[in-house]
Specification:
The chain has 20 helices and 17 strands. The strands form 4 sheets. A 7-stranded antiparallel sheet has the order 14-11-13-12-16-17-15, with helices on both faces. Strands 4-5-9-7-8 form a 5-stranded antiparallel sheet. A 3-stranded parallel sheet has the order 1-3-2, covered by helices on one side. A hairpin with a 3-residue loop joins strand 16 and strand 17. The protein is α+β, with helices and mostly antiparallel strands. The radius of gyration is 23 Å and the shape is globular. It has helices at residues 18-28, 39-45, 61-66, 73-81, 97-109, 165-174, 191-196, 204-207, 210-213, 241-244, 278-290, 303-312, 316-328, 346-362, 371-378, 386-392, 406-426, 459-479, 495-517, 541-545; strands spanning 90-92, 113-117, 136-140, 147-151, 156-160, 177-178, 214-221, 224-228, 253-260, 262-263, 267-275, 297-301, 336-344, 366-367, 395-405, 431-440, 444-454. The structure holds flavin-adenine dinucleotide (FAD). Flavin-adenine dinucleotide (FAD) is lined by residues 7, 70-71, 115-123, 126-127, 141, 161, 183-185, 189-190, 192-194, 196-197, 199-200, 202, 248-249, 253-254, 384, 487-489, 524, 527.
Length: 547
């Protein structure tokens, strides 16, 4: 069971260490815990369902509330304040293909908007009920969570699409395998959700992004089923798998997915390496990538994130000793931490480790061993729980991300961070902003930014701050030639900017294909692109020239 407001398992917590509290007060100012809505109050304020009494639909208020918000900052603000603009009218939990088909037909015949729901961990407004006069039904796939088959010779496994990360790993690990897809939302996100939103796991550099792992599967659409075989490669026309990837529930329901698996790694270790500044770390990461050194993760934090991570780790004595030691070697305030992951067969991993560390040394990197890496590994899925503690302490946290070619990366990162700070300055609000390079490719990398501010007692004001930041940053991303999302998807929050990214021909093509599969527009009509293209932000030539 997930918390109904906030992140994760109600039994798990990540408290803010005392030194962390002081640090936040120093940067953001002192905060206070603000009252939130209680469960009985939110139930009381939920409008009645428009769906009536139907045996395969739950209209229970808490069920509907839980399925009406994801994990974006607006979702957090609204669910905590009890101001969810629209609550889904019901939730259906199919267990078979036939039941999914029945629900789709019911929605088609009755003009009901249907929202496919995996784990509800979306951070870009994928699963929120849209503004519509039609009733809304959420189709929750959590009961479709079985392994259907495993072919060890071909190293592929077939799963029902509603299976969550830990369930996948548990069943595969028992057979000696892993999928290796570890987004930070791993505990609650699902295979179908990963495919539908083109997700990226923390060790994608080694295991691949979800598009590399997804080998075939079954999509149930309002006009029929699409069944894609797991051929290893093909030159038979365009790859329809690519069409399902990132479809965000617009085309149909992914009921099954065939994924490639690999044996559990013989060796895995994460190392903490410090660089004197961002540029030095970035040069090392780029060289490791260009030399195709087979490491599993390269995550480079900027100076502010390095400092914040160390302080929030709560290991005050060690952090103090490390800082003193590092400054003796000339690593000052601009120092940046790289977490380097090495995974795989022992000999290959050992060679990769040596080559990567050699390149780091060449760029002035100091390897502090596996202590920091182990602590990162231990808390990799616990860190999101810190957001609950921060919220309770009166701080709002949000993240955003993009990917761009190497030549533009540092400038775009700077511009995004300045845009966030400027939004705060305009309101006389202090904002703590930091970031890291989280995924790397031959031609560039992804930039992942986190920002925190002291939340206002007025939920609407917090929403305005979010909106200003989202708009300013998205514009910077488009001008800077980045993608509007490297891993979170388009959803509702990015669709205005996605149009810029793919152009009007791309938009028309997607609109027509959506219409082909879903001619009455019942499936997630509010995400990815609007049924009618509307005028959007245009990048101006002079700002583009800066790159
Ligand atoms: C704390 C936290 C950390 C995160 N870290 C990462 C990360 O490291 N990497 C990353 O990529 N993302 C991350 N995310 C974002 C999010 O977890 C991903 O987008 C994830 O892929 C969503 O999966 P889900 O099962 O929760 O899908 P949902 O949120 O339920 O749905 C997402 C979209 O997919 C559609 N969908 C879901 N299942 C199906 C299906 N079976 N058939 C058709 N459509 C479907 C929905 O309609 C919706 O449009 C994070 C989110 C949080 C809150």
């Amino acid at each position: 069971m997930k918390r109904w407001k906030g992140w994760g398992d109600p039994e798990k917590n990540y408290p803010i260490p005392d030194s962390g509290k002081d640090y936040l007060i120093q940067i953001l100012g002192s905060s206070q815990n603000l009252p939130d809505i209680s469960e009985p109050e939110i139930i009381e304020s939920t409008p009645p369902s428009r769906l009536g009494n139907i045996d395969f639909i739950s209209t229970e208020a808490m069920d509907r509330i839980r399925h009406s918000c994801g994990q974006s900052l607006p979702d957090w603000i609204r669910i905590h304040a009890g101001t969810i603009p629209r609550v889904t009218d019901g939730v259906s939990y199919p267990q078979t293909h036939e039941e999914i088909k029945m629900v789709i037909k019911f929605a088609q015949d009755n003009q009901i908007v249907l929202i496919p729901y995996g784990g509800g961990t979306s951070v870009v407004g994928h699963i929120n009920p849209p503004k519509t006069d039609k009733p809304v039904l959420t189709l929750d796939l959590s009961r479709m969570n079985q392994l259907l088959g495993m072919d060890e010779t071909s190293r592929i496994a077939t799963f029902q699409a509603g299976i969550r990360g830990p369930e996948i790993e548990s069943v595969l690990n028992k057979a000696g395998y892993t999928l290796g897809h570890f987004p930070q939302s791993f505990e609650f996100s699902t295979l179908g959700g990963w495919i539908a939103s083109r997700s990226c796991g923390q060790q994608s550099y080694y295991y691949g992004r979800i598009e590399n792992l997804f080998r075939g599967g079954h999509l149930i659409t309002p006009v029929g089923d699409l069944n894609l075989q797991p051929v290893p490669a093909s030159s038979a026309g365009p790859d329809l798998k690519q069409f399902i990837l990132g479809s965000e529930g617009r085309l149909g329901i992914i009921s099954q997915a065939i994924v490639q698996v690999v044996p559990l790694p013989e060796f895995e270790e994460f190392y903490g390496i410090f660089f004197k500044d961002w540029e030095a770390g970035l040069s090392a990461v780029r060289e490791i990538t260009h030399n195709r050194v087979q490491v599993s993760m390269l995550r480079l934090s900027d100076a502010q994130e390095t400092l914040t991570t160390l302080i929030l780790s709560g290991k005050d004595n060690i952090v103090r000793a490390a800082s003193t030691g590092l400054s003796a070697f000339g690593f000052g305030e601009q120092k940046c931490l790289l977490i380097l992951g090495v995974t795989g067969e022992k000999n290959i991993a050992s060679t990769a480790r040596k080559s990567a560390l050699q390149i780091c040394r060449k760029h002035g990197g100091l390897n502090t061993g596996s202590f920091i890496g182990k602590s990162w590994q231990k808390s990799r899925f616990l860190t999101p729980y810190l957001r609950n503690s921060l919220w309770e302490a009166g701080y709002a946290l949000d993240t955003l991300e993009t990917a761009v070619t190497w030549d533009r990366l540092t400038l775009l990162k700077k511009k995004i961070m300045s845009a966030i700070s400027r939004a705060g300055e305009d309101r006389n609000l202090r904002i703590l902003v930091f970031g890291h390079l989280s995924h790397v490719y031959q031609t560039g990398g992804s930039i992942y930014i986190t920002y925190l501010f002291r939340r206002s007692p007025e939920p609407e004001e917090n929403l305005e701050i979010w909106e200003e930041i989202k708009s300013a940053v998205s514009k910077e991303i488009i001008v800077g030639g980045g993608t509007i999302s490297h891993q979170h998807g388009v959803g509702n929050d990015h669709k205005e900017y996605f149009v810029q990214e793919i152009g009007s021909l791309g938009v028309n093509f997607l609109q027509h294909s959506n219409k082909f599969f879903d001619h009455v527009s019942i499936l997630n009509p509010h995400v990815l692109i609007d049924p009618e293209n509307k005028e959007t932000f245009q990048a101006n030539e002079s700002s583009v020239d800066e790159y």
